[in-house]
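ok posting inputs for the magnesium ion job
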Amino acid sequence: MYFESLLKKDMKINIPDSANIILDTLHGAGFEAYVVGGCVRDSILGREPGDWDITTSAKPEEVKKLFKRTVDTGIAHGTVTVLIEKEGFEVTTYRIDGEYEDGRHPKDVTFTSSLIEDLKRRDFTINAMAYSVEDGLVDEFDGLSDIEKGVIRCVGDPIERFSEDALRMMRAVRFAAQLGYEIEEGTFNAIKELAPTLSKISAERIQVELVKLITSDNPDKVRQLYETGLTKVIMPEFDLCMETEQNNPHHAYSVGEHLIKSVTEIRNDKVLRLTMLLHDIEKPACKTTDEEGIDHFYGHVDKSAETARKILRKLKFDRNTMVLVERLVKFHDYGFPAEKRSVRRAANKVGDDIFPMLLEVKKADTLAQSEFQRQEKLDWIEDVVRLYGEVKAANECISLKELAVNGRDLMERGLPAGKELGDVLAAMLKDVIDNPEHNNKEYLLDAQKLEEFRKARDN
Ligand code: ATP
Ligand code: MG
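and the output
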């Protein structure tokens, strides 16, 4: 790799000007200061760092004296946010951590004057490097060599590190997925041993890591959550999927492997990836085998939708995500003829807002099944995508939004406000979905037609 020949001392990292101002100010006042952690890792990898964290020998009060604008972000833990123009930088005093409470903030900390002691408290070697222009790369735990090898390895004894903060086990798999790395054997075995202790960690923190994992370039690493025993804690339903075979011509994998494959087949979007991860989650509970030995999973769609919602609720996902995933799972098996009228009806039933996403879900699902009838399935999806495109281009009516008539029009024609209005609009919508040429005021508000719509609602 390109950095292999570089001496750590000579390593150059491009630090943004505003972060440099902070480093220079601290140095000028006689303190040590380095950029540290994720930003060093990402710079070496040629990735754009999300934020530039700074670690320093200065105590929080000393940091505050040196800068005009600061925020006491986590002063008890040694963190002060320094504002340079509009940007905030977390400046944290060298510290030794007690047990972690919420991931960034351990219950108690001790300040130290040693950079190396501070690096020791960090989770993985690739996250435990510091850098300054003056000293170059400080890499006490061979993070650079682990980057070269593509390895996630704990700093020090993995059992101790995961015992201090069980979330680190999720972080290990998450970094492996983001970077395409392997988890080093000792670290992996320690996760296996301590996986049950993940139950001590809050759902919010687990959610963050799970989302980062499945929206990474290697979402199939979710398999390692299973192999290490972590899914057993956060969604045991998934373990059953991994252990359920599907003897059926449409399938080539176990339920769990099908779920994983389907996640890799869909665009990188949180809702879509969660949908694929969970779309068949209740298949194990619905499995029956017929006389010919073929497995069936009757009723799995509705049950999976319900369980997907439950799992997301348990992980404290926001309502919007929960509802979208549930709706997409609920319709993932929905079929209809590939012709325009049926496409309009389907989009109305599914919801026009998620219909294009549903087609993506169906495609990913198909690509994760066996080759059996695959081309037919893909041709059908392609036809539906095209027809739906034509329906939208022609602005044909799918929902009340596009109906040429609204409640006010009906009241002007003497209909009373209230339920009847809604019923009449629904009858009109049903008509124009099947007959787009009817979607105009002249037709819909014609006295005789209006009478028919009012009658239609009674039956
Ligand atoms: P990203 O920002 O991409 O999620 P990161 O490595 O920057 O990754 P942060 O959560 O921003 O992760 O934390 C910054 C640094 O703090 C890490 O690189 C690591 O050195 C340390 N760190 C964060 N969380 C933990 C933890 N739970 N245990 C030990 N060290 C941690
Ligand atoms: Mg970060």
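notes: The radius of gyration is 29 Å. Residues 374-393 form the longest helix (20 residues).
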